[in-house]
Each structure stands twice: as structure tokens, then as C-alpha cells.
Amino acid sequence: MAISRHHTRACPLPGPFICGYMRRMNKLDHIRNFSIVAHIDHGKSTLADRLIQMTGTVASREMKEQLLDSMDIERERGITIKANTVRIEYPAKDGQTYILNLIDTPGHVDFAYEVSRSMRAVEGSLLVVDASQGVEAQTLANVYQAIDAGHEIVPVLNKIDLPAADPEAVKSNIEDVIGIDASDAVPISAKTGLGIPDVLEAIVQRLPAPEGVRDAPLKAMLVDSWYDAYLGVVVMIRVMDGVVRKGDQIKMMQTGAAYRIDKLAVLKPRMVDIAELGPGEIGVFTASIKQVRDTRVGDTITHEKKPCDKPLPGFKPAQPVVFCGLFPVDSNDFDALRDAIEKLALNDASFSYEMETSAALGFGFRCGFLGLLHLEVIRDRLEREYDLDLITTAPSVVFKLYMKDGEVRELHNPADMPDLTYVDHIEEPRIKATIMVPDDYLGDVLKLCQDRRGIQLDLTYAGTRAMVVYDLPLSEVVFDFYDRLKSVTKGYASFDYQLAEYREDYLVKMSILVNDEPVDALSIMVHRDRAESRGRAMVEKLKDLIPRHMFKIPIQAAIGGRVIARETLSAMRKDVTAKCYGGDATRKKKLLEKQKAGKKKMRQFGKVEIPQSAFIAALKMDE
Predict the structure, then answer these.
(1) What CA–CA distance (Å, rounded) separates 355 from 511?
(2) Strand, coil or helix: 36
(3) Which residues are annotated as a binding site?
(4) Beta-ladder partners of 567
(5) Each residue of 356-390: pLDDT tens digit?
(6) CA 484, chain centre distance (Å)
């Protein structure tokens, strides 16, 4: 049990006596709930580490970098994927000890749903801005979510120890771009610990205390839930009104399911048992919940016998924007894949899935994601944590098909495209993209957006940085737009987007045929004007990516029954005349004719093996 040294001195009694001491202190005006929001790599997780370290929440021997990033994949990629919570006790300069509930949120656009969910559980935000880079696209997106949630915002300028840091310019940048007062922004270096005490004081003095009535019926918001191999389903809650205690009978208002609380704890960041949680507090409980679908994020939790009048407004369900198929390499692993996906879906409310079958790949799942990074993270977690070998089909977005009989269908997989004679028109999703880029690279960014069928909406300047707003088709962005953007701007551009609308365009399904067999996983929807160039590029790539076989392999791109591009992969040739030393030339000719006939037969019946790496590589648009 990790207890701050201040509490050890103030209350030397062990075990439940500490809980009693803490409970007496839990007046609402001594609690602060806040999140840390920022662009990727501006120092959110490092600041969280310093706050935890400086308040003695975790013993120094247990301290490590990115303490709240518990997943291996988070630590490897250096990004936050899941919003994580920790409870800190801080003895302030006014002599009072405050309880600070901190939520460290992700910065990447694909995990914006985690950010919006965390915002609803707290009253204030620390806005962390890199003092050398200024406001970026995702800074804007995240701070607007905090403003929409009614948060008090404290600007924090990080990395002021860097030679390139310019705190005064960044303050005016915050005021110009975001429109909030940054004159009293707190200058810090999260890496060295400089200015961290000032941040703690700013949290206590400038962020509001939570509101709530202790004697009212219990009303708690289900903020998050995850699966623990030993405890089952662990549920994180934020108590709005009333008190919840261990042993209470509670009810989920959306599902109507009732449970008895077995364990009640706060995260420091390990679970520390506590007797009760009052208004304004954030904690976790377990209640022998077996069913994954019983814990809906945004649900209201109340007492079974004495419920509250009306539930809290829930969260808007996440809208997946990218879809792809996940299939096991070995069809015997299908049950293991289903169990793994069910467990992951509990950990991640923005991940959706449904079963599908493919003629080539067998049984699998059609999965929905918030973006390509989200897809990569889910796939990596399935392969690592559940030891599965997976085939991933090409990512696609949802198109709307308006049929001639008046029906409107959603097309998740291009392989399911019906005959065009029955389709009146097709609409595709468009996004509003905000790109922040230094002036030097603006021309390259504009060209990239034009190449992807973009329509420029706005172009403004803040200092030497331009802010470009584009209307872009999501299907052109989803695969490798972010990589290309980073490439043409040498990593200096930042990018954020939101779904805008569906709009009609001249779209067609392009199929790829290998050895005259259509490959479902490589079917894509493309704009008709670009189909030839895209098809040619794909077949040329596949020619290099598919290993040579003993027979010739035609690789074709087709729209309907019309082939628009073709390449032929030449056969490997075995030297069948190697054992003919001298002698008659007809002997050699006979062997070669026999080989030729054998290859023809092989081509008729031969199955072409396409490596998994070829699927992803073939779809990347090199320009």
C-alpha cells in the first residue's frame, strides 16, 4: 500500500484507521479532479510522473518513466492509448491536505474518444504546450473538448529548459489560436522537475472543487471498465452524489443489472482498498461481473433499494470510421480470436466487431476502429497478449449505397459491392481536416491535399505557422495520409480531423485478380478518374511483392468485367536439361516441352501464396 510520507507522519495508525482518517478529510473543497491534455509528445505522461513522484504517491524504488502507461505497446511506441487515473495526496502551502484525482489522457487523434470520456469525470484541465513548438492541431482538438465539458483550464508551458524554447511567443500563440488567457501560464520542465510545485499549487488554487450532495441517493458515472485475469471486470466510477460502500447492492440504470460490491479501491496507481467513496471522488470496484456487455461506459450506477431519480446523460457512442477484417491464419484459432476480441472490446468501448466469412480466408470478424493507429494497436494487442497469428484485410471506410428501389445500404467491405445496375449513386464520408504546418512546408501540404481530392476551406497564420483547413474524403486519408504528411514536412506538421458529412461522388469498386482469381482482401473503392493509375500502381507493386512460383502468374486490376491494368509474374525455371551431357538436341527439346506442359497444368490448378506483408504494402500510395 503506497501512502505518502506526509500521511505516515500525520496518522501513524495502519490499515483501516488510515481509511478513516482519509474519510474525515474528504470534504468536497479539499478534492480536485483534473485531466492533462496536450498534443502528442508535449509531455503529458512525463508531467504525470513528476506529480506522482513529488507528492510521494509511489515509493522511489517503484518509480519508472511513463508510470501510468501500463501496456507494453504504450511503452514501446511512447504514446498513451488508455486514459489512466491516479489519486495523489498533496499537503498545500495553506496547511490543508488535498486529494488530487489525475487522469492522463491520450494525445493522438485515434484515441479522442478516451479523452472525451475522461473530460466528463473531472472539473478542470492542465493544458500542456511545448514551449519550443507551440500550439499543434491536437492541442486545439483536446482543449476544445475540455471547453465543451465546461472545464477551468490552467495553461502549462513544458520544456522551457530547451534552447529553442520561447515561452512569451508560445503564450501569445495560445491566446491567438485558442483564445484563452495565458498570461499566468505555469513555466515548467517535466523532465527535470523544474516548476512542478507551482503546478501543484495552481491545481489547488485555480481549479474548482467538485459539487455533490453526500446525503442524496447514490449517483455515480461509469467512466471506464477493463478485464483483470484475477478480479474479473473492474469498473471505474466517478461519484456525483451519495456514498458507495463495500457490500452495497448497486444497480446499473441502463441494463437494470444488480450486483453486490466485493471490493472498493482507489488507484495510487496500484489498487488500495478503501471503505467508501463519497461525492467528487474517483475509484474502482469489482462486483463479480461476468458479462462483458453489462458494463456500458457512461451508464449511471445507483443503489438498488434507494435509486436516484434520473440517470446522468450518457456518452455518445463512438463512431468507427475505419473497418477491416481480422481472420486467424489457422482456422482452428477462431474460438480463441473470438474470446480475445470480446475481452479487448471491454477494455475499449470505441472498438466494434461483428462476425463475417470470406471465401478465401474462412471465418473471422469485421472490426470498426477510430483510425489506422487504433487498428494497429488492436491488432498488435491481439497478437501479443493472446498469442494469435492474424490476417488483416485492407482497411476501408463505410460508403452509403442508394439503390434504384429507394433502399439505402451501408457498404463496410468493398467485396460485398452489389451489381452497379441496381445502384443509383454512392456517397462517401468527408472529413474536415485541420493541419498546422511551418510556412516552409506549406506548398507540399497543399499539393498533398489536392492530390487526395481535397477542397481548401481556410488558411490562416499564427506567427510563422500556417493553419490549413481542408475538406477531404476519408477514404483517401485513412491509409497512409498521416505518414505522407509527416514525410513531406519532415515531421513538423500536426493533423486532426472530424467527420463532416456524406457526399455523392463517382466511385467504383476495383478488384485485384491474381491468377484469374479475385482477392477479396485487396478489393478497394476508388474514384473513377484515378482508377487506372491506382490499379497500375497496385499491380506493379504486387509483381514485386508476390514470390515467384513454378508457373506464370497474371496480376490484373479490373472494374466490373473490364481489366484496366495487368502485369505478369514470370515463372521460376528449373534446369531440367542439367543431366543431359551432349547427345541429341531432340532429347533436350523433349524435356523442355514436358516441363512446359507441366507448368500449364500447374497454372490451371496451382494456388498462389500471397504473403501477409503484401496486402498492406500493396495499398500504400507512394507518390
Answers:
(1) 23
(2) strand
(3) 41-46, 158-161
(4) 555
(5) 887 667 788 988 887 777 888 888 888 888 888 88
(6) 19
> Which pTM was predicted?
0.69
Q: What 8-state DSSP symbol labels residue 393? A: P
Look-up of cell digits 487526395 = 452
CA–CA–CA angle 471, 179, 473 (5° rounding): 10
SS (H, E, C) 110-177: HHHHHHHHHHCCCCEEEEEEECCCCCCHHHHHHHHHHHHCCCEEEEEEECCCCCCCCHHHHHHHHHHH
Contacts of 563 (CB under 8 A, 6+ apart): 513, 556, 557
Distance (Å, rounded) from C-alpha 118 to C-alpha 146?
A: 10
pLDDT of residue 1: 35
What SS3 state is found at 2? Answer: coil
Binding positions for GTP: 41-46, 158-161
3-state secondary structure 301-338: EEECCCCCCCCCCCCCCCCCCEEEEEEECCHHHHHHHH
Dig out the grid coordinates for 61 from the structure. Answer: 524504488
The three-state secondary structure class of 20 is helix
Between CA 406 and CA 188 the distance in angstroms is 60
How would you class 392 by CB atoms within 10 Å of its CB: exposed for 0-12, middle for 13-18, buried for 19 or more?
A: buried
d(CA 359, CA 215): 61
Nearest Cα residue to 156 out of 197, 121, 123, 210: 197
Helix, strand, or coil (residue 518): strand
Domains and CATH numbers, the chain: 5-206 (3.40.50.300), 219-303 (2.40.30.10), 322-395 (3.30.70.870), 414-505 (3.30.70.240), 509-619 (3.30.70.2570)
Residue 163 burial by Cβ neighbours in a 10 Å radius (0-12, 13-18, 19+) = exposed
CB atoms within 10 A of CB 286: 19
Q: With CA atoms as reference, report the closest residue to 219 among 294, 280, 300.
A: 300
Here the cell at position 401 is 449505397
Report the run of H or E that residue 558 belongs to, with start and end: strand 553-559
Please state the φ and ψ torsions of residue 452, each to the nearest 5 degrees.
Answer: -95, 25
Strands 124-130 and 31-38: parallel
Q: In the beta sheet, which residues pair with residue 153?
A: 125
Ranges of residues in the chain whose predicted pLDDT is under 70: 1-26, 58-83, 104-117, 291-293, 314-318, 346-347, 349, 359-360, 479, 573-579, 581-583, 595, 598-609, 611-623
- Using one digit for the tens of pLDDT, what is the confidence trace for 165-181? 888 989 988 888 888 88
In this structure, are residues 341 and 383 in contact, taking their beta carbons and an 8 Å threshold? Answer: no
Residue 217: is it exposed, middle or buried by C-beta count within 10 angstroms (0-12/13-18/19+)? middle
Total H helices, total E strands in the chain: 16, 31
Instruction: Give the CA distances from residue 564 to residues 527, 557, 558, in Å, rounded to whole numbers and listed in that order.
Output: 14, 6, 5
